[in-house]
Amino acid sequence: MENCIRISDGFLFLSVKAVPGASKSALGEVRDGRLKVRIASAPEDGKANEELRSFLAKTLEIPKKDIVLVSGEKSRLKTLRLPVSAREKLELWEQGNRGSRE
Question: What is the pTM assigned to this prediction?
C-alpha cells in the first residue's frame, strides 16, 4: 500500500487505477504504484469519478467532500487527495484483505 500513497502538505495523495463497468465497486491489489479500484459505474459524464469518490468515502469512512480528484478526470490513472487520516483505514483494509484479493 505504501507505494501508492504520498503524504504532502497535510494531505494523503492516493494513486489509483480505476476500472469502470464492474458489477460492484471494490478495492483490489496494488500494482505499478497504483491501487486498483473496480467501479460499478460506466465511464460517461463523470459518473465513474463520482462513484469512485462515493465508494472511497463509504469504504474509508470519510466525507465525500473530503475526497478531491486531483488528476485523471478522463483517464483510468487517477490521483485523489484525501485527509491524512485515511491512511489508517487503507492500511487496516490491506491487512484484513491480504491473500483474498485478485
Answer: 0.89
